[in-house]
Structure formats: C-alpha cells, structure tokens
Amino acid sequence: MLRRRFVLGAASAAAAVPLATLPGCGGGSSTNEPAPVPPSSVVLHLPADMYMHPGAPTEWWWHTGTLKAGNRVFGFEINAAGFLKDGFAFTQVMVTDVQNNKHYQRTTPFTPPVQYNAASWAESDIKKDWYARLGSETNHFSAIDLTHGGSGYTSAPTVEISGGGGSGAYAIAVVGTTGVVEAVALVLPGENYTSAPAIKLTGGGGSGATAFAYHSYVSMRAPAADPTKNMTVKALLNDEDTNTEVLFDLTFSQQGPPFFVWGTGINPDGTGDTLQTRNYYFSLTRLEASGTITIGKEKHTVSGVTWMDHEYGAFGTSANPVKWFLQDMQLDNGFCISNYATMAAGESPQLNKTTASSCTVQAADGTTWYVPSLVTPFGKTWTSAAGATYFLQFEVQIPGFNATLIVDTPVAAQVFPLPGNSVYEGVASVSGTFRYAAVAGTAWNEQAL
C-alpha cells in the first residue's frame, strides 16, 4: 500500500505447506502476457531491508488483512510509522467486526524525546533481532484525548495528572486563537502507571475543557535469523468513539518470496537513488497468521493469510501531500495484486469514471510484473461524519492478464478520521476473472483523498 501523511494536531510451523494450497499467492502461466520484471532489477535485499533505515525521512511497517474465527470475519490493521523529517511518530490500529458491522479504530501520536526516539524506536542493526515499537506494554499511559475544547482561554491551562499508580508524566495544552483548547500533548509518559491517570485542565482564564488518558501501543518483533518468520505482533487499541479496548496478540510467518512493489522495490517516478529522494517498498503477502483478538471481554482465536507492508524513504510533503486510492488482492488461483492510482492536488476520483492505474502482480514463485491497469469506482459509496465520500466498490481491469476484478467492501464505515487528512482503510473481498478464469479472494480497500 501507498501510505498516508499524518498531520499531528499531533519459521517454521507452516513451512511445509505447499504454496499452491495457500489462499494467498500462487502460480500459473499464460502466453502473450507482458514480460516480467527481471529479478536483477530488484534493489531491495532481505533480511537487511526489513530493518530500519537511519536517515530515512519516513519509515513504517503495517499489517492488514482478513482473519477468521470460525464463521466470524475480522479485518484489521496494525501500523507503526516514524516521520524523522517531521519529528514525530504514530500508530494506527483498527479492527472491523464484519458480522456485527462494527469498526474500532484510533490514531495515536508519539512525540520526542521519550515516546519517539528516531534512533531507537525500531532496530537498524541486522545482527540483532528486529523490532518496531511505539508505546509501552507495561506503562499504562500513552496519550491524552481531548474530549471538549471549552472556551474563553487566554492562555494555556495547566494539565494536572493524578492517580494511575505512576509518576513523572507531563503534558501541555495548546490553545487556539479563538480561546478554545485544540490539543493536549503528552510530553513525558512517566513510569509505573498501572492504569490510565485522571486528567484535569485548570487555569488559563477559560472553562469547560476536558480530556482523558488512555493506554495504547504497537510492538512488532522477529528473530534476526529470518525476520519474515515467527514475527510476533502485539497491539492495544482504545477505540476513539466507545473507548472499547481491543487487544491483538498475533504471530506471522511468511511463506514464499517477498513482493517487491513496482517489481523492483523502488518507485519509478522518483529521482536519484537516496533515501531523501526515492520511495522504497516491499510487502509480505503470504503471511500465515494466527493468534487472538480480544474486543472488550470477548476473545477470538483467529487465523488467516495476511499482508504486511514496509515502506520507507521520501513520501510527499506537507505542501504537496500524496493522494491515492488502492486495492490489494489475494486471489484463490494464487496470484497477489496491488493496484493503485495517484492524483494531483485538486483532483479526485469520480463515481463511474475510469482512471488509469498501475499494478504489481506476483505469482507464488516470485515472478513479478508491473503493468498498466484501469480502475473504476462504481456502485456503493459512504460519506463520513466529516463529509468525505469514499468508494465501496471498484472494478479493476488488467488487460495484460485478461483480468476483470470486482473489489467489494462489506462494512461501510472503516476510516481513520484525522484533521484534514483522513484515510479509509477497509477489509474487502474480490471476485471476477483472471486469465479468463473465475477467481475470488480477500482484498483491502485504501483511500487517501
């Protein structure tokens, strides 16, 4: 997936499974198709490029996909991202309970010097076990959510932090030009908090501002011997709307080769060959996943074949952010597909209007193609509380593979709401034809419009 610009207001158990039996990516061949990208053109190398790249302006790892517990279907995303160039990091965590049409999500910012250390939030030494982590599993104080801005503030109120069993936390309030508190930023999370403390805003000449503390984190770990296998991912989500806690405890092991986006792992539209000027990107699209998701007091044992992305380097600017819509697909004939289209400032996709797009296609043996495609939003749409309209159905045509694929999103409300920069991230399904044969599978619907 291409990723978002966040503006801060802040091996082994499944190794013997044949690839062709996985519901992820498989094989097959045909004639009169585009030539694949030569393996010699790939610029990335694993395991080294699984690790953090010091000096990269942006870097993120995120897991998405479909997990099942019996007949229950869950879509999920666990994302940890650092923005060296902007001086902050964030997590985005969500789960969609398809059967109950419920969506839980939150974006949590992490600021320096304690919560985000650009040199150590992820491992860069390939001789050591790999990790990426934001927030603390043991210190139950990660961030502060402003619930009401109040009014009449002529200066920033004092943020009083009490209870929770810990100490050393410090936060500041930010007041806008209209006398309303616009944000409460946790500067120091303190230590030894066994529960979220109480937050009270006092002084500043105004009244009515309220906020609460919550606990959230993302922790990803894997052994240095092969960090694409036996990866453990733990995350805690405090839902933004309901404060429901969702706990993830998952294990992932990649089966087969990595998926190099654009066939090479480097964006062909960039210039130069440096972290500051180019975008680098690979995915693990055959992750055998298992573990648990606990929503409130309800614990689900889940499994599936899921997808992880690692992207780093240059990616837009605050003055010229990247806008896109994307469809990732895992077909039951075995192929994996990542299709996307980007838009310039002022442009937006239109219902029933076909847009030129680009598509990375991979077979189980690692053969990869980067080909032109066409994408058309059609049918159902959903409009968020902020007034943004998102597309729930897409037709993707890949002429080089005689493919017509329909991506359908079963739950409408699957957005990370952010000030001026919301991102739609949704579990989906895919069906249609590929090489003239019927196919189906799991999919992901992403839109940053």
Please provide a brief summary of the model:
With 449 residues, this protein is an all-beta fold. The chain has strands spanning 58-69, 72-83, 88-97, 102-110, 130-134, 143-151, 158-162, 167-175, 181-191, 198-202, 207-214, 217-222, 231-238, 245-254, 259-260, 279-295, 298-313, 323-331, 336-343, 355-362, 368-377, 381-383, 389-391, 393-398, 403-408, 415-416, 423-434, 437-448. The protein starts with 57 loop residues before the first strand and ends with a strand.
Structure report:
This protein has 449 residues and is mainly beta. Among the domains are: 143-214; 321-449, AttH-like domain (AttH-like fold). It is 0% helix and 52% strand. It contains no helices and 28 strands. It has strands at 58-69, 72-83, 88-97, 102-110, 130-134, 143-151, 158-162, 167-175, 181-191, 198-202, 207-214, 217-222, 231-238, 245-254, 259-260, 279-295, 298-313, 323-331, 336-343, 355-362, 368-377, 381-383, 389-391, 393-398, 403-408, 415-416, 423-434, 437-448. Strands 1, 2, 3, 4, 5, 12, 13, 14, 15, 16 and 17 form an 11-stranded antiparallel sheet that branches. Strand 24 (393-398) and strand 25 (403-408) form a beta hairpin. The protein starts with 57 loop residues before the first strand and ends with a strand. Mean pLDDT is 92; it is low at 1-23.
